[in-house]
Design goal:
The complex is a heterodimer of chains A (257) and B (268).
Chain A: E1 10-15, H1 23-36, E2 41-45, H2 53-57, H3 65-69, H4 75-78, E3 79-81, E4 87-89, H5 103-116, E5 122-126, H6 133-140, E6 144-149, H7 153-169, E7 174-182, H8 187-202, E8 212-220, H9 223-231, H10 235-238, H11 243-256
Parallel strand pairs in A: 1-5, 1-6, 2-4, 2-5, 6-7, 7-8
Antiparallel strand pairs in A: 3-4
Helix pairs in contact in A: 1-11, 7-8
Chain B: H1 12-16, H2 44-52, H3 65-79, H4 90-107, E1 112-118, H5 121-128, H6 130-147, E2 153-156, E3 161-166, H7 171-186, E4 190-191, E5 197-198, E6 202-208, H8 217-233, E7 239-241, H9 251-257
Parallel strand pairs in B: 6-7
Antiparallel strand pairs in B: 1-3, 1-6, 2-3, 4-5
Classes of the chains: A alpha/beta (257), B alpha+beta (268).
């Protein structure tokens, strides 16, 4: 996005290629960790068609992004404070009609982001799964991209495909990688290394500047995660001592570097 | 001056939706007297329009159902063509691109949209007059028609602007196809009324329909338009196609991706 006067927030798009890898769960908990580290954070539910950030946060507000788009409510009325110390802008139901990237949807989304930019230090865009043009457009608005992958071959393949598309269509040269659900320490780094190796061999040769994948962290498989999700609570709130929670905090610290 | 996104207001939805207007309930008189014999239908304007455009006046018994059907068909055809070139007009094009964009979303076929613009057309008009300008537009239209497949749709969508929809055109051939079209125009001699030959070139921008599912015709047109703008600003008489995002992961890539021991059977 263009640097407008009064601009402040750094926009980080969180995307994954494949769904069900914990992208939304990580978005919410990373936001909590970033807020605790002193950032004023807004999580924007950018999965317009199939949003479920509301489920993760156990928040079902009456006023959502949908009402802002239709002009029923103001943006301020739709921004909510969460227990994690950060703000959210939820898409809400009825957003299915926005799952097609029309010029109007694009304008409305850009306009909303332009308005919240001066008011936050960080905006996390929780994008949809897949590489639809809505997802690609949302990612194009961000300053940086964080890809969430798991060690599963399907997730890895989709993460790689996403990296490839972002490198060739958006000229992304620095892409951050966070590996979720690792079964042993070090697995995340190995996975980043594998992805980098394939990118070096098949993607970068066609580009003037090679693509660099930056390792942001690995989050272990942890029963605490399932407990938090079941209780619809933030992991960092209900089980801050768990391995997964500590890994998220470490990832947030690296994200700020 | 060609601007990117200048034609964004593609009225695909408006063009597709039709409103059927009912006669007001207070007035029971239908627009046509139902008892009228076919001879009283006011057809002269329609017939003279057809005659003027060089279309054949329908054969058969005047006023009969088949005759009326051919008349309607001829009028539909007339209203979907550009008067000067006989190419599809803008209305026809917007209908076609909406249909094609829905079709490829289902079939996943590669479809290419090209936007074309005659280089320095204003200069041709200023230098040689509007009649010469029309001549150039017609010659370009003929050249375009001569270089595409029968299944492709060539449309004149503005003064010196054209568009071509190429269904089922594999990305590997896209540039070659567009270049052939560009060369076809460049190599076609145009003779002015004075007998003076005139050279004419076009710039081409192109984009493939998105291989992911959800999109709209206006976004597709905008992407092709952006490439046309690029072709213009890079010096004209050239083709610029949007680099196709390669989201397909080959077996070779997968092989290397899973080469690590963590994907092996031995996880110890």
């Amino acid at each position: 996005m263009n640097t407008a006067p009064g601009r402040r927030a750094r926009i980080t798009a969180i995307t994954s290629g494949k769904g069900g890898v914990g992208k939304t769960f990580l978005s919410a908990n990373l936001a909590t960790a970033l807020a605790r580290q002193g950032e004023k954070v807004l999580v924007l539910d950018a999965d317009l068609g199939l949003a479920n950030l509301d489920v993760v946060l156990n928040l079902f507000p009456k006023i959502t992004l949908h009402d802002v788009f239709t002009g029923k409510n103001t943006l301020d009325e739709a921004i909510l404070e969460t227990g994690g110390g950060f703000s959210v802008l939820l898409a809400g139901s009825g957003m299915v009609e926005y799952s097609r990237l029309t010029p109007e949807v694009r304008e409305q989304l850009t306009d909303v982001i332009r308005q919240v930019l001066p008011r936050f230090d960080r905006i996390l865009l929780d994008t949809g799964a897949g590489i639809s043009d809505v997802v690609l457009y949302t990612v194009s608005l961000a300053d940086e991209v964080l890809i969430v992958a798991t060690p599963e071959p399907t997730s890895l393949t989709d993460a790689y495909a996403t990296i490839k598309v972002l490198a060739t269509t958006q000229n992304r040269r620095d892409i951050r990688v966070l590996v979720n659900q690792v079964s042993k320490p070090g697995e995340g780094r190995v996975i980043r290394g594998q992805l980098q190796q394939v990118v070096d061999r098949f993607v970068s040769p066609g580009l003037e500047v090679p693509v660099k994948l930056e390792f942001v962290g690995e989050v272990p498989i942890d029963p605490a995660v399932r407990d938090a999700v079941k209780k619809r609570q933030l992991l960092l709130e209900c089980l801050p001592g768990s391995g997964a929670a500590q890994a998220v905090v470490a990832a947030a610290t690296r994200l700020r570097a | 001056m060609h601007e990117p996104g200048g034609r964004l207001g593609c009225k695909s939805n408006g063009a597709r939706s039709r409103r059927i207007e009912k006669p007001p309930a207070v007035n029971p008189t239908p627009p046509f007297p139902q008892s009228a014999s076919p001879d009283t239908l006011r057809l002269e304007r329609a017939l003279s329009l057809l005659a003027q455009s060089g279309q054949e006046v329908p054969a058969g018994v005047r006023g009969s159902m088949p005759w009326l059907q051919s008349l309607i068909d001829a009028l539909c055809d007339l209203s979907s063509r550009d008067g000067l070139t006989g190419l599809a007009n803008r209305r026809n094009f917007e209908n076609a691109i909406a249909r094609e964009s829905d079709r490829v979303a289902r079939s996943g076929e590669p479809a290419l949209l090209l936007m074309l613009d005659i280089d320095h057309f204003k200069h041709i008009n200023d230098q040689h007059g509007h009649i010469a300008g029309d001549l150039v537009i017609k010659a370009v239209a003929e050249a375009l028609n001569a270089t595409v497949r029968p299944m492709d749709l060539v449309a004149r969508i503005g003064g010196e602007e054209f568009a071509i929809i190429l269904p089922n055109c594999p990305p590997a051939f896209g540039t070659a196809v567009a270049e052939r079209i560009r060369e076809g125009v460049q190599e076609r001699p145009i003779a002015l009324a004075s007998g003076q030959p005139l050279g004419c070139t076009i710039s081409i921008g192109g984009a493939y329909a998105p291989q992911w599912v959800r999109s709209t015709p206006s976004v597709w047109m905008e992407r092709a338009d952006l490439q046309l703008y690029r072709a213009k600003s890079e010096g004209r008489n050239r083709t610029c196609l949007e680099p196709t995002p390669v989201s397909v992961v080959s077996a070779e890539e997968k092989g290397l991706l899973f080469a690590s021991s963590i994907f092996g059977e031995d996880l110890s």
